[in-house]
C-alpha cells in the first residue's frame, strides 16, 4: 500500500516536472495528439509521457483531445 | 517506429488571438477537407482552434463543458462543409469562430435559465462552474513553482533535468547533448527529483 502511494507520488512529480521543464509556449503537434488517441505506441515512451504531462496542465489541448476522442 | 513531433508555438497550436501570420499561412480548406475524410490530426487542428477561442474569450466558467462544446462545433463544421457552406478557405477560421461563439452563448443562456429556475437547497447545488478553473489555475501555479525550483538547481543538474524532462531526450542523448557523463546524468536526475520531491512533498500528497 505504502509503495503504491509512493509510486503515485513519483508519477505526479514526474508529470509536474515534465510540464514545468517544457519550453514555454510548447504544445504537442496535432499528429502527436492524434497518435495518443489512436495509436499511443507509435509515440516513443518519453514523448508519450511528455504529451500526457502537457495535457495535465493545458486545458485547450486536453479538451480538444477529449472532444475528438469522443467523436468515434 | 516512433513518431517525430513538431513543436508548435502557442499561436500555431491553439491561439486565435495571437499573431495572425501563422494562422493565415495554414491551409484551412485542406484541414477541413482532411477532417471530412476522418483525419484525426485535422480534427484536432480545428478542435484546438476552438479551445483557443474559448481560452481567448476567458470562458473558464464553462471549462467542464469545453469538450462537449468543442464536439458540437466540430459536428457543425462538418455539416456545414458537407453542405458547401465553408467553401472559401479564408472564411474557415471566421466560420469556426462564429459557430464556437454561438455554442458558447447557447450554453450561457441555458445556465442562466437553469439558475433562474433552480430552487435546490444550497447543500444539493452543483459545484460552481468556476471551481474547475480554480483547480486549473492552482495546478498552473504549482507548475510555475516547480519551474522556479528547477531553475534554482545547480547548473549541471538543471541542464540534465531540462534535457530529459523538458526536451524528452533519453539519458544517452542528454549525456551527449550536455557533455555530462552518463553515470552523472543518472545521478543528477535521481538527486534532482529527490530534492523536488522533498520541496513539494505537501503538494504532491495533496493532489
Describe what this molecule looks like in 3D.
The complex is a heterodimer of chains A (72) and B (207). Chain A is mainly α. Chain A has four helices and no strands. Chain A is globular. The model of chain A has no long low-confidence stretch (mean pLDDT 86). Helix content of chain B is 71%, strand content 0%. Chain B has eleven helices and no strands. Chain B is flat. Classes of the chains: A mainly alpha (72), B mainly alpha (207).
Record the SSE blueprint:
The complex is a heterodimer of chains A (72) and B (207).
Chain A: H1 2-21, H2 30-38, H3 45-57, H4 59-69
Helix pairs in contact in A: 1-3
Chain B: H1 10-13, H2 20-25, H3 28-36, H4 40-56, H5 66-82, H6 92-117, H7 130-152, H8 155-166, H9 171-178, H10 182-199, H11 201-206
Characteristic key phrases:
heterodimer; A: 72 residues; mainly alpha; globular; B: 207 residues; 11 helices; 0% strand; flat; disordered N terminus
Specify the biggest β-sheet of chain B.
none
Rg of chain B (C-alpha, Å): 22 Å
Output the helix-strand order of chain A: HHHH
Mean pLDDT of chain B: 79
Given helix and strand content, the structural type of chain B is mainly alpha
Q: Tell me the span between the first and last alpha carbons of chain B.
A: 35 Å
Report helical residue fraction of chain B.
Answer: over 70%
- Figure out the total of helices of chain A: 4
Largest interface: A-B, 47 and 59 residues
Radius of gyration of chain A: 13 Å
**Shape field of chain B:** flat
Structural class of chain A: mainly alpha
N- to C-terminal separation of chain A?
A: 37 Å
- State the helix count of chain B: 11
Sheet with the most strands, sense and barrel status of chain A: none
Given the C-alpha coordinates, what overall shape of chain A results? Answer: globular
